[in-house]
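Standup notes, protein team

Yesterday: finished cleaning the Roseovarius halotolerans set.
Today: Riboflavin transporter structure.
Blockers: none.

Input for Riboflavin transporter:
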Amino acid sequence: MFSPRAPNPALAALLTLAASAFAAGTTLLAKALGTGVLGPAMHPLQISHGRFLFALLAIGAVTTVMRPRMSRPHLGLHAGRSAFGWGGVTLMFAAATFIPLSDATAISFLNPVFGMMLAVPLLGEKVGPVRWGAAAIALVGAVVLTRPGDGAIAFGAVLALGSALCLGTELIFIKRLSGREGPLQILFINNLIGLVIATLAVVLVWRAPNVQQWLALAGIGVLMAAAQACFVNAMARADASFVAPFFYAALVFATIYDAAVFAVLPDAVSILGAVIILTGAGLLAWREGRRRPHQPPVAE
């Protein structure tokens, strides 16, 4: 599953759609845990701890069965990637308790925008006017979704922006790791280090979950592992420029989940902000695809 395969664009598209549905499902479960639907409201630090714990168990089981060839890991890059990935995931779960899932998901599409901006000073990349324009468009959409003056909604959007910034910084480490190690090894080490960080962070807020909460935490970890596996598998069957746009379907799934479970529908501001962000992110993805083939990161 994690090895190169014969090109199959149709299957790659289906796998990416599945990955987006699974990823949106993790945010839905995090919102249920954080808003007290399944018991006393759970702290985002404990939710992200459960995400890394159960994702590691799932990926560890796959690693044990497949026994991939392991190379010497670059622990410094892995540590940096895992730290920012943990921060991004935790902030995303926190944001989901304050704002609609559609808003949080739309803002998460700023990850590559922040990654591109940070690549200029950190990796020495040159960015042309089209890519800067795409970034500016996406950021305008984010400003729309912050809804200045709306209190809790604006605060949730700021948390989501912090998540996008952390995950955009993670992209810098992923680019440095690209080609050095196999994807299954990267996933396993990322979740292992992430679990260590999450365990240290959760100590002060830990409380014993009830049965429903344990099941939801397990669901978050397993769904995220499944999303990562589907996305990596899709990347083995089609070019990144073809696969990446299908992941934007996560916004559709998030909207459907929020409406079905929490009876929350996006309003005009949510739709406008999402359209602007998708326009900028889509333009950036199109431009990146024309510049050179590349592999976007595995979904967090």
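Follow-up from PR in the comments: Residues 9-291 form one domain.
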